[in-house]
Amino acid sequence: MRETLKQYAHVRNASELLSLTGLDMAPINLTELVRILDVEVSYDFDFDRMGYSGRISWTKARDTAEIWINPMDGENRQRFTLSHELGHLFRHMLPDYEDAEWAEGFSDKPIQFNRDGTASSVETEANKFAAQLLMPSHLIRHHASELAGEHRNSNGKIGLSRETFITRMAGTFAVSSKAMEIRLRNLRVI
Ligand SMILES: [Zn+2]
């Protein structure tokens, strides 16, 4: 394993990763994160993989993890996919570095991102990691109260529709409105 990644190999949760790398700011800078981790990311067009959103595997020759992201997906989707693959890396691959079970890596079809509980526990865990990485709870609370404060009327009510609130928050964190809505609901902000 490359020295740089080895330094973070003990990390198991997204908030620890963000504070160790100093990237605890919205929107989370994933480009900088993968640069720090020394993980390889490619967005090459691959006709055989067009049914997939992303993939992570360990490249022995290069001694690091290699992530592929579907270049046809939108930017927010790509950010979620990349974070999901990092979830596989920190939750499933690095803890069991010598294990042959994940030697094939993980290939993710869009269905893996379903949040309705039909996905396997491994996929649910990677999704949870992704949500915590892209939308850290303390940053969500901070920006939510800031946004609400900006739109508070003299009568104390917030002059912002629920939909606009979600859209604005999604923009701040560079995630889809759907992902933000779920996160806000899980954190009981809405
Ligand atoms: Zn997955």
Q: How would you describe the overall organization of this protein?
A:
- This protein has 190 residues and is an alpha+beta fold.
- The chain folds into two domains: 132 residues, Arc Repressor Mutant, subunit A (Orthogonal Bundle), CATH 1.10.10; 50 residues.
- Helices cover 47% and strands 9% of the residues.
- It contains eight helices and four strands.
- The protein has a four-stranded mixed β-sheet with strand order 1-3-2-4.
- Strand 2 and strand 3 form a beta hairpin.
- Helix 2 runs parallel beside helix 5, helix 4 crosses helix 5 and helix 7 crosses helix 8.
- The protein is elongated, with a radius of gyration of 18 Å.
- The termini are far apart.
- The model has no long low-confidence stretch (mean pLDDT 90).
- Zinc ion binds next to helix 4, strand 4 and helix 5.
N-to-C series of helices and strands: HHHEEEHEHHHH
The CATH topology label of the largest domain is Arc Repressor Mutant, subunit A
Report the sheet-strand fraction. Answer: 5-15%
Count of discrete domains: 2
Q: Note the overall shape.
A: elongated
Please give the oligomerization state of what you see.
single chain
Helix content, binned percent = 40-55%
Number of strands: 4
Spatial ordering of strands, largest sheet? 1-3-2-4
- CATH structural architecture of the largest domain: Orthogonal Bundle
